[in-house]
Write a structure and sequence with these properties.
single chain, 6 helices, globular, 43% helix
Length: 164
C-alpha cells in the first residue's frame, strides 16, 4: 500500500525543506510542491487560475499514485482551509493509499525569523511576513495531524513525520 503525505503549512514554516528531506529518507518517494504547478509572473489569483492549479496538482498526483515505481507520494502546499484538502482528496484515487494529512506550524517568532532571513536574502518579498502570520492560526481548525517545527531542522521534522 502506498502512503500519500499531504503536508500543509503557512509560508516559511518549512514545508518544502522538510518534504525534500522526507523524499530522501523514505523509500521509493516522489515529491510534488504545489507551488511548482502555479509559478507565474505576474502571479494572478482568479477563479480560472485557482481551478487550473487544482487540475494541475490532481493530474500529477494521480499519475504518481498510479505509477508502480513509487511507494511514497509527498505533496506540499499552503492548504490553509479544510475545503482545499477535501477538494484535493475528492479528485484523487486514494483507494490504494494510506493518506496522512499533516499541518506544519511554528511559533510566530520562529516564522518571522525564518521569513526575515528569506526577505534579507531576496528570496521573498517583505509582505510575506504579514500574510503568513495571518494564515498561521487557520491551521488550528484543520483536521489531520499537527506538527510544531519550532526549533527543528528539516531533517528532524522529516524524521518526526516518519516515526509518528
Amino acid at each position: 500500500m502506498k502512503t500519500l503525505y499531504l503536508i500543509g503549512g503557512t509560508m516559511g514554516v518549512g514545508k518544502t525543506a522538510t518534504c525534500q528531506e522526507l523524499k530522501r529518507m523514505l523509500p521509493n518517494a516522489v515529491l510534488l510542491d504545489g507551488d511548482w504547478c502555479w509559478d507565474a509572473a505576474p502571479f494572478v489569483v482568479t477563479d480560472e487560475t485557482k481551478a487550473m492549479v487544482m487540475d494541475n496538482i490532481c493530474h500529477v498526483l494521480n499519475n504518481f499514485i498510479r505509477c508502480s515505481a513509487y511507494e511514497n507520494v509527498i505533496f506540499c502546499w499552503v492548504m490553509h482551509e479544510q475545503e482545499i484538502v477535501n477538494d484535493l482528496l475528492s479528485r484523487l484515487d486514494v483507494s490504494s493509499c494510506l493518506v496522512r494529512t499533516i499541518s506544519l506550524v511554528c511559533s510566530e517568532e520562529e516564522l518571522c525569523r525564518r521569513l526575515g532571513k528569506d526577505v534579507s536574502a531576496g528570496i521573498r518579498q517583505p509582505d510575506v511576513i504579514g500574510r503568513s502570520l495571518a494564515r498561521l492560526p487557520l491551521y488550528d481548525a484543520l483536521g489531520g495531524e499537527k506538527m510544531d517545527t519550532t526549533g527543528l531542522t528539516p531533517v528532524m521534522a522529516a524524521d518526526r513525520i516518519i516515526h509518528r
